[in-house]
């Protein structure tokens, strides 16, 4: 194959299929039909002389050679997009972009509603995809353009990453509604539900507890706060979580308490890759989000 003969539009199809792992999902992202995506993939396979993907259940799995080469290709595509964006002024009202946001499930309710509202008001032609990024992969995924921005608990950032404080949220405690007060002693003696998508390791509030030397008994670990709140409503377990995650979960079966321990607020940060510092689209998105979120969290529920 002569590289100059390659139809570059096919690389957009490759990128979408690699990220989504499914022909129908890739078609949705590209605003194409699944048959058009399949036809484009067939053309790309023919031009490259490589199968690229293999069927795996209901999805498509990259071949070993595809898996080896794809990160470099996606990184180059990301750099090309950045270059093209810098040539023109970004007009959110006219833009037709898809922003990729990396955010843990637990923090989605804090940022996603606000970001969706901002896009609807100021950039109606843009779309947003929220996806979970493992902290150990954050730098790589930002560098390769797999995500444009990331929201996570603030931690020391690698040199190639930029970090901007986004917001802080105080920790509160949910209990069954018949518990009318909560002392430090009762908190430390109680059984606790913790929430994490991972099977082991520290949870969201763990660093704040460790900073004051408090360990808890945590016999239950689940993947979502909604499930954890239901467990608390039917037991004597406690659930510690940020206030703006707790308030939407309140029902007559639950009580919300200030945390009886002097825990520091959870610091949330906004991350992006240094190479995209001057990207006008992402600069607009960052500034808009940073200006809107503190106002949202300061307003009464």
Automatic annotation (TrEMBL):
Keywords: DNA-binding, Transcription, Transcription regulation
GO MF terms, alphabetically ordered: DNA binding; DNA-binding transcription factor activity
Origin: domain of life: Bacteria
Residue stretches making up the HTH lysR-type domain: 6-63
Family: Belongs to the LysR transcriptional regulatory family.
Listed name of the protein: Transcriptional regulator, LysR family
Species of provenance: Ferrimonas balearica (strain DSM 9799 / CCM 4581 / KCTC 23876 / PAT)
